[in-house]
Amino acid sequence: MTILKSFPLERPAIELPWGIPEGPFRQEFKETRLTQVTAGHLRARCRLLGGLETDVNFHFVPRAAGRFFQVEVYRRPSRHRQRGFDDWQLRLQRILGPGQEQPQRLPIDTTFRWKLGRVDVVHEWYYQWGEHERILFTCNAG
């Protein structure tokens, strides 16, 4: 998986170029249901990261007529919180390498971070608006 220029999805089988405008981005999903959550925030059920099937959030900046800059995947904790976190972490490590564990700080618990060119990846337990696990892929302007 190379995320330096685009974000790959397994289903639908597409590569989403970082910085693509929202209109052409929507065209990539012509055969997949894409939901508008708010301005600049779209969601679709996708497969990614070696077979993970989940809702994926796509963010654009600016929110109106913006460009694609972020992918967010999250889930609320289950009974097997640590097992779930470890599963996602192993998927990320297989694709991105070991990452760097970050010091804990509130409202965030366990955090791993990767820096790949202008793309930052964060895997964390997050407590704002309720506890959940989150993976963020953010392409910084450059």
At a glance:
The protein is α+β, with helices and mostly antiparallel strands and 142 residues long. Helix content is 15%, strand content 48%.
Question: How would you explain this protein's 3D organization?
Answer:
- The protein is α+β, with helices and mostly antiparallel strands.
- It has one domain (13-139).
- The protein is 15% helix and 48% strand.
- The protein is built from two helices and ten strands.
- An eight-stranded antiparallel sheet has the order 3-4-5-6-10-9-8-7. A two-stranded antiparallel sheet has the order 1-2.
- The longest helix is centred in the middle third of the chain and has 16 residues, at 81-96.
- The protein is globular, with a radius of gyration of 15 Å.
- The chain starts with 5 loop residues before the first strand and ends with a strand.
- The model has no long low-confidence stretch (mean pLDDT 87).
User: Looking across the biggest beta sheet, what order are the strands in?
Assistant: 3-4-5-6-10-9-8-7
Give the structural class: alpha+beta
Number of domains: 1
What is the helix/strand order? EEHEEEEHEEEE
Question: What is the overall shape?
Answer: globular
